[in-house]
Amino acid sequence: MFDLLRDPVAFVPFAMLIGLFVGSFLNVVIHRLPKMMEREWISQAAELRGEPAPETERFNLAAPRSRCPHCGHLISALENIPVVSYLILRGRCRHCSAPIGSRYPIVELLTALLSGYAAWHFGFGLAAAGALIFLWAMIALAFIDLDTQLLPDDLTLPLLWLGLAFNLAGVYTDLPSAVVGAMAGYLTLWSVYWLFKLATGKEGMGFGDFKLLAAIGAWLGWQTLPLTILLSSLVGAAVGISLIAFARHGRNVPIPFGPYLAAAGVIALFWGETITQRYLGAF
Question: Which of 21, 58, 103, 117 has the smallest CB count inside 10 Å?
């Protein structure tokens, strides 16, 4: 089995297939993890007030079964095949014909494509395995932040420690660079946060952004942080200005920064060293 997967002709389609099913699971994570966090906060608040925790239906990543939000129809296994079921059902619930959001197949396809590219880029081995974990986490965090402006510690902190663990073997960078990357990633945005707050009295970003950049630094080393910050800032600024200019997005309405950090982290994973060398070579 492993000998077969060493061939890119087999490994790339295999990674894409796995990516499709992981993408389906990521849709569950994106939808349910913020709700799980909210329930936990409500329970903790009730405990602090000395009140019993509210009784609610068991709710986690495994239960209850997925269902149509419009009619409550339970989604069967045949209706939950990544992308295929969406196309067969023509993007509608089989029971009530309510539209199914296009987000679901988009996340599945994005996960599959990035997984296949990671398999082709790194080849069979530890680097590809780590890249898949990194990419899947970036996708989940980006879409959760888009929906809720939250970057859950349940994802960012394990991601940070996994980056350091992979780099114990020097998979993406040496361990000192990974440790410095985690420290510098956190402290850079932490400093920006406090400078902005002292200057304006407002919070310019959330603490989750610090942790996400720290995780990227732990995986890819401190050398990729300037590129990551530059790319995410440029794209974030361009999108923010476009929203204000063309979509009547209020200037005081916050724009999540996590998706731009995640996208920049993905670019740095695949092409960070090449971009940095070419940029430095120009001078």
Answer: 58
